[in-house]
Design goal:
Elements lengths: L2 E6 L3 H17 L5 E4 L7 E3 L2 E4 L1 H6 L4 E6 L4 H13 L3 E2 L2 E2 L4 E2 L3 E3 L4 E2 L4 E2 L3 E3 L4 E2 L4 E2 L4 E2 L4 E2 L4 E2 L3 E3 L4 E2 L4 E2 L8 E3 L4 E2 L4 E2 L8 E3 L4 E2 L4
Parallel strand pairs: 1-2, 1-5, 2-4, 5-6, 7-10, 8-11, 9-12, 10-13, 11-14, 12-15, 13-16, 14-17, 15-18, 16-19, 17-20, 18-21, 19-22, 20-23, 22-24
Antiparallel strand pairs: 3-4, 24-25
Bound molecules: uridine-5'-diphosphate.
Length: 218
């Protein structure tokens, strides 16, 4: 049985996650090919030594199984592509770098990408297609929704609930909640880089600064 693995997106996110994908297969002792899918391509190309093609060309590849990691930072695009893959019967592929620490009782849904030096604490539940970039952590008892994105160096402390499609910028830190009163980052909220989040953030809001405050339009 041959499996073709792919990284969807050949821009910054995809090219950073390809080495993670290689580490994932190497640990499994699997020598299968990994390609890039990128819809900006019209012809078969080569990106960092891997074959690269658009989604239609990928569909035309004849193999018994196809697994795809959606390596695109924009969570709405990730969701749209995940729906298309599901409709086409293609599996979402989770990839984990070699130097990732996973503690006890972690539920991690399909399609995740855990970059080098990410740590996930105990009793954490994470939804579909989670991206945790370099050096980010998620501490104990957090609940993370679908299509959440962490830029590098995010410090997500214990008892925090992050809802679907939230984006947490580089180096942001979020204050821990308590078991009865978790700190909540609402659906689609954006936390600016370096923000120090001390209280819950409403759905759709953008917060910046220390202490983080809702950004208002000027
Ligand atoms: N892309 C794609 N299909 C889509 C949407 C995006 O192949 O439906 C590709 C797009 O051509 C680009 C990449 O995904 O190469 C997204 O790259 P971008 O630089 O916007 O962001 P990144 O997620 O890499 O930071």
């Amino acid at each position: 049985m041959t499996t073709l693995y792919a990284i969807y997106g050949a821009s910054g996110c995809g090219r950073s996650l390809m080495p993670v994908a290689r580490q994932q297969l190497a640990r499994q002792g699997d020598a299968s090919e990994i390609i890039f899918i990128d819809d900006a391509l019209t012809d078969i190309a080569s990106v960092n030594g891997h074959r690269a093609m658009n989604y239609q060309a990928f569909l035309n590849e004849t193999v018994s199984e196809k697994c795809v990691q959606i390596a695109i930072a924009n969570s709405r695009v990730r969701e749209k592509i995940a729906q298309r893959l599901e409709a086409d019967g293609i599996q979402l592929w989770s990839i984990t770098a070699d130097h990732v620490v996973l503690m006890d009782q972690i539920e991690l849904d399909e399609g995740s990408a855990l970059s080098p030096f990410v740590s996930i604490g105990s009793n954490v539940k994470i939804g579909k297609c989670f991206h945790a970039n370099l050096y980010s952590y998620v501490e104990h008892d957090c609940v993370v929704g679908d299509f959440v994105t962490f830029a590098p160096g995010v410090k997500c402390n214990g008892n925090i609930h992050i809802h679907a499609h939230a984006y947490i910028g580089a180096g942001a830190m979020i204050k821990q909640g308590t078991p009865d009163q978790p700190l909540v980052i609402g659906t689609g909220a954006i936390v600016g880089m370096g923000a120090v989040v001390t209280k819950s953030v409403p759905a759709g809001a953008t917060v910046v600064g220390n202490p983080a405050r809702i950004m208002t339009q000027k």
